[in-house]
Amino acid sequence: MACHGGVRTVERVSADGTALELLVHGVGGTTPEEMLGDPRTVRITGDDTAAVFRRTEDADAEARPEDYQGKPVPEAYVWCNLTSGNGTRALWLLLLPFMVVNLAHWMRPTARGRKRTVRLYGLLVRLAGLSLTVLLVAAACEVALDLAAWQCAGTPACAERHSWLGFLSPDMSDGGWWSRPGRRLALAALVPLALTGLLWYLSHRTWSAYESQLPMSRTAEPDQETGRTALGRPGFWYGRRLVARLRAAHTSAGLLTVAAAVGSAAARFDRRPGGPAVLDTLGRLLSVALVAAAVGVVWVVCRRGRSEKRLDQELDEHVVRRLPLASLLLLVLALVYAGWDRPGWESTGRLPGDTTFGAVAFLQGLLVIVLAVVAHLLHRTHPDPRAAMRGLGGPAVAMLACALGGLMSGGVSQRVADWLDGTGTSIDGPPVLLTWQASVIPPLLVVLLLLCGGLGWRTWLLRRTELGAVETEYDEEPKDPGRTRRIASTRALATLTDRGPLFVAVGSATTLLLGAGALVGALTTDETPGEAARHAHAFVQGAADTAQALGSWLIGLGFILFVTWGRRAYKDPSARRTIGILWDVGTFWPRAAHPFAPPCYAERAVPDLTWRMATWTRATGGRLVLSGHSQGSVLAAAAAWQLAPSVRKRVALLTYGSPLERLYGRWFPAHFGPTALSSLHDEVDCWRNLHRRTDPIGGPVRLSGDCGPAVDREALADPLAYGRTPEHPLPAPILGHSDYQADPAFAEERERLLSRLRSAVPAQRLMAEPPDPDPGQDSSGRSSA
């Protein structure tokens, strides 16, 4: 291998010579030195964000095939900086509800021949995502416009405690220019406007930095509509067009929410009897324009979904540019309209936020219910007994996303209200619905604690069963009760992952029921739960008061922990790494339902792996083992689906600690279900999977021999030795999810895969990078296989 003038030329060697092992790490990341077991490594290709590394001595391995007879050349693909980089990643905590609702899109059940129902499922999730944007921007409006500018600045007792609001107070500023209610609202609108701008900036910046990589150009395979999986489609990992459309729509929705919050207060005052007819007319015209713009936003969200069958690089310029500009213009008009001088206008009571939050809560609950019906219909067309919650995982996760949005909005409103209102009597506080929502948090926690207690009891019973199993497996070893208990406990705790669907189902169902009760309570009374309860029995009154106070305190505590975690993540690399692990799991999927979700690292990682495998096999004709641990095995499977069939047949898969079936197959059955995994087993040359009973994440892929030899090896022993042995003179650790390569079975399976790979001996040639668009064809257009 040599480089001349920036163009790399690679001499093609016999497939019987060089073999490559491409290692892909899992969640949390690692270093190339740890992956390759050598302190001296060199970057072969890539940049500071993601790159392929080799040991220094292996950098020119293709030029010395005789030195690698019978052993592979190890390479490490390091992608951890895609999810755990600099301190700005801490801002991604703001995007948590958006990430969760985006996951709901990909949890669609497997379906065949129900294209319209599938489109309806995606449409409902996109609408739920749009409601979250409106909810969070409305919460910012509630804090800045209602609590600060309207209530506190308009109340002398509250304004005196906060001198920074003095220039907005009519009593403290002696009727200054900014003391008019409409002008106060116009100035406070800068806060939700800044939030909307921040969300737009994060979405646009992360797209440019992480997701703008073009996949390898190729034509779609003829059998892509057989229902196996969509991950192999040419445009699956490139959603530029949809993300741009959704970003424009959600940005416009945020701007229109701010405009409606500012303009509606002024319009309500202008509609009073005897008010100026001109301002009344302007207010009505502005309301009509806002409604028309909102309809346009909904139409843009509903109009188009993902384009996966081809690589779609077009942009809808008329939507991407004109819709946000029109919404910004309406916001400016609303600010000017609200700032007009209105004699006699005073800020009393609350702004009409109850209607907004109530409508959003009702819409979210309705969308979740309809989504559950659609998911059930899809699941019935192709039942999958392993699917989480019988195909209802998507609606349940969408409900949790809405609950997270409500918790964040309610937490901010409650804390700011408590901070502004020191005595608790000077201002009215946040909308009644947010207070009712705080009251339902304690019973929700009680239900979850009872569920955790039940799962703990079941785990303890399973531990007792595992004690006997461990003693049976190691009956020839000297008994060590402490060692046996640790092994049995680790095995029992590892099974808690399989109870995740039950936890999500109970949590989402309870949240939906309690949220409906809070909405009914807010609509039937204008009082807080504690005040309304005074008309009932004393016991009910005390329970309601306690629930409201405790719920408000819990919301505040959650908000403080959220801010503290984000602040710590900004300064502490180890905490930022922990957040990165969360994103490793939650941001594997492209942004299909919400453009403000954290960026999809797989839209960079999958093309990286695809290009590397395709170009290397084309240049050398060699054998390749794609070795993936944990989340790396998911990336490996996704990259293998993206390869041309001729290249895919030269690749063997070795997965270990893999969540492919245990997590992804159950939660994302349409893309990693039994049909999809069976097709992958059949299309790659060979596949072996390693797992342990002590592993809480990885597990078997459960593929039988219908499409070839069984994939799963028998569960590996963990620990490798029960007691002290000549090979393990010190106690062997319980490895769980880590260090699969330390097991002798790893080397055995890798050698088995290398020996089974079919070999071809193409002629030698020189190739200049970049390669042909289709790595499965030579310069004459004929298949190189």
From TrEMBL:
Biased composition (Low complexity): 776-785
Transmembrane portions of the chain: 120-140, 185-202, 248-269, 281-302, 323-340, 360-379, 391-413, 433-457, 502-523, 550-567
Keywords: Membrane, Transmembrane, Transmembrane helix
Span list, region Disordered: 759-785
The protein, known as: Integral membrane protein
UniProt organism field: Streptomyces dysideae
